[in-house]
From TrEMBL:
Any GO BP: methylation
Protein's recorded name: EFMT1 methyltransferase
GO cellular component, one term: cytoplasm
Gene designation: Eef1akmt1
Cellular location(s): Cytoplasm
Native organism taxonomy: Eukaryota, Metazoa, Chordata, Craniata, Vertebrata
Amino acid sequence: KMDDDDIPQLSSHTLAALQEFYLEQQQREGMRTSQGFNQYSIGSIEEDWQLSQFWYSDETAAHLANEAVVAAGKGGRIACVSAPSVYQKLKERDDEDFSVCILEYDRRFSVYGEEFIFYDYNHPLNLPENLLPHSFDIVIADPPYLSEECLQKTAETIKYLTKGKILLCTGAIMEEHAAKHLGVKICKFIPKHSRNLANEFRCYVNYASGLD
């Protein structure tokens, strides 16, 4: 029979810290529901590094959302492919005349209802039938991995969705692949992330944008 002493015990200090952590979490959850929590605000869904998610800084997300709205035009349709922080910024501007969809692997985004489309870049054209080809005025995409394979597959999705305009965010090292697969060129605007990434990130477009 195992002796009680053999069972690893948490120190009282660790235990107290853990309880405090859970308490804070409960309070945060409670606050969210009581304040009529805005589900669209950035941070309402935390980034998940295991899914290779890295949110943009607030300014970058706002800047890219603004660019998308201008590029899409009045009544325009915007698709965000693996770019949820831009999507959340667009949702904060709900008084304007445009519509938006989010294509995302992370099913937590299904809270956004019909605007959420489950998306796995490994199956780039496995899309719902009601998502018609070339039905978006602009597609903003941020492929989850810095690999040519990931970019090439995401590019199939982008080309299927867009009427023409493409705004791609990916590493600076992907410049040649971005030109090859999507015909996009690097912009002056440098996107920033809420946590600094080791890789230099850039924006690429194939139209006259406000990002230069």
